[in-house]
Design goal:
With 561 residues, this protein is α+β, with helices and mostly antiparallel strands. It has 17 helices and seven strands. The chain folds into three domains: 278 residues, Up-down Bundle (ABC transporter transmembrane region fold), CATH 1.20.1560; 76 residues, P-loop containing nucleotide triphosphate hydrolases (Rossmann fold); 76 residues, no CATH class. Strand 6 and strand 7 form a beta hairpin.
Length: 561
Amino acid sequence: MDASAKTSESKLKRWRHQSKEVLKVMSVTPKVLKLIWNANKKLTFGVFFLSSLSAVVPVIELELTRALLDTMTKHIGTSQNLSAQIFLLIAGMALTGLIFTCIEPTRHYFQENLGDILTRDINALILRKASSFQDLAPFENPEFYDKLTKAEDEAGYKPLLTLTHVAGLFYAAVGLGSFLVVLLSFQPLLVLIIAATALPNIIVQCKASQASWAINRFETPEVREMHYVRTVLTRDFNAKEVRLLHLRDYFLDRYQRLFERFRQRHQKLRFDRWRNGTWLSVLAAIGSAGCYAYIAAQAVARTLSVGSLTLYLAAVDRVTIGMSNLTYSVGSLYDCNLFISNLFEFLDAPPTMAVPTDGTAVATPRMIKDGIEFKDIVFKYPDAEKPTLDGLSFHLRRGQTVALVGENGAGKTTIVKLLTRLYDPTSGEILIDGVNLREHDLKDWRSQLGVIFQDFNRYYLTARENIGIGKVELLKVPSAVEHATELGGALSVIDTLPNKFESILGKWFDREEEKSVELSGGQWQKVALARTFMRSLGTKVGETLLVRSIGSARCSSADSG
């Protein structure tokens, strides 16, 4: 095989690969359309119906214009009065103009409302998926965070943008098809000329979208790091140390360097897209000029009436614009599909922890008889070189109170995470009354545990909610919340608040009728402890098993459960 044949074969393989990639990306469109349809069927139908109607009306207007011009041309130079036919044509043009004027604001109104519902539904899908993972492993995986970040960043506008482009594509296709019928009935060669000069732009658009997607996929960690730097400089929990250590300039410089790399890559991409788009626009303009010249020549040869001349010139113009709109919509839809595929990748991510189904799960006993046993436990965090726990075995008997004491990094918190099944052991077993924890109903097991970690959550809700969500089903039972507050030693905190249990904690949100209240670290700890005591209310547990993970002398707080 000579060099030219090899080159041709290589180009053919590359073209086939690119074609498969384009088809793969465009195959996302039905999934997006399904999301849109499920969001609101009536609004979706309304958007596409009005888009098709909007595309057909201009064709009707041009046909009426041709008929009007031809009819009036016949009356020029004669003594005949304007016929009823002319009045009907004028009335028809006025009516179609009115319809066209009313369509666009109505379609826009439908599309905005549909966009709000769609954004809500997709954000709910993301939140539901993110919270469906039962263990912590995904949340300590950078690849998972990349997918989650991209899904979150694009959920607010990409599906809506996809809706806009799909509707635009539908509009362009219907309108283009209508005017193509007009031109095909006159001279099919004109359609081939316009298509040949306009279609290359679709290929260029898709290639540019592929390059943009590749850059964004590559730089997602950088974008996430920029978001992190912004968080460091703007959130209350970082404010103290940033100021005490004079970290503002350090993080500002870091943000600017990250953003500059981000900007330079996109600047080159934008320039390439502008340059290619300009040359292809010139090519399309040459094709249109050739079509205009042909139609003008036919008019000079007196083979076209004035009305037909107007119709075909307008048809070439509309087909050229339609091709441009179709190219833009296809390229933009391809671009959206590349990015929204991140959403479906995230939503299709498999669970990282095997949880028994309802039919096979073992119900956790309300009162443990034998106790909890760690048997030859080995645990290594993802990407860690050495295991945190290596061959650990112990047996906690019923009724025992046990303290875990050790240096930082000894594995105290890890034991609590394994016991609460936020992780599964790398090897070994955790037995509850002799039954492997993996076989227990996870929700049932966790409902009987109370845990406070060093990095416990601070919920910017009311004090009642902060404590009551320890057991959501008892949140609206005032006596339960008050009893848990007393057990946690948080009554003294509540007494200092302006609206007692109804005071908003944390300084992120204010209500019109009241200001929020910030607590000290110790006060937040008492609220978290009261939240933990909510777990023991309304159950039949006779004894409480406490596992306390106490830090070294250098730690000011402890993990406990």
